[in-house]
Design a protein that fits this description.
The protein is α/β, with parallel strands linked by helices. The chain contains eight helices and eight strands; from the N terminus they run βαβαβαβαβαβαβαβα. Strand 7, helix 7 and strand 8 form a beta-alpha-beta unit.
């Protein structure tokens, strides 16, 4: 999953191997987010989920929504979305992952597993914590935070079903190798 701020970045991320896009630009206005979501949903060959906005995801026909940990309860979002759309939740503990699963989440994103520039000063959880979250739920757990190909491979070995990233897909370099 690639976290992208706009449609152009989303299409670049797909070229570099992203299989799901999360449109995430919290500093943009809702109107700007709507325009980018419409563009991205129309152009993307892979599913697009919208960050934190169930209403926006429904309005633009997105594949689903991804909720921050302390956002709308998953069960409430599931009622609004129905069963046909993806619903993900960011989590920071096994208990939060179980709560998301019980509420109807299709997947959780856990981290940061490693130190990351997107959350400076935040203590990384590490691979052991990732393993605990994976053991706590039956739904896929995506690792996030400070990932490169080697670290993504280590997260997969720890049980993660995949990974979510920003710089892995958007850094100014050639195509990525899928771990």
């Amino acid at each position: 999953m690639a976290l992208v701020p706009d449609a152009a970045a989303g299409l670049r991320a797909v070229e570099r191997g992203a299989t799901v896009l999360q449109l995430r630009n919290p500093s943009a206005t809702v109107r700007a987010q709507e325009r980018e979501a419409e563009r991205l949903v129309a152009a993307s060959p892979v599913p697009v989920v919208v960050s934190a906005r169930v209403d926006l995801a429904l309005a633009v026909g997105a594949a689903g929504v991804h909720l921050p940990e302390h956002d709308l309860p998953v069960a409430g979002a599931r009622r609004l979305l129905g069963r046909d759309r993806l619903l993900g939740r960011s989590v920071h503990s096994p208990a939060a992952a179980r709560e998301a699963e019980e509420g109807g989440a299709d997947y959780v994103v856990f981290g940061p597993v490693f130190p990351t520039a997107s959350h400076p000063g935040r203590e990384p959880a590490g691979l052991d914590a990732l393993r605990e979250v994976v053991r706590a739920v039956r739904i896929p757990v995506l690792a996030i935070g400070g990932l490169d190909p080697e670290r993504a491979t280590a997260c997969r070995a720890a049980g993660a079903g995949g990974f979510a990233a920003i710089s892995h897909f958007l850094a100014d370099r050639g195509p990525t190798v899928r771990p």
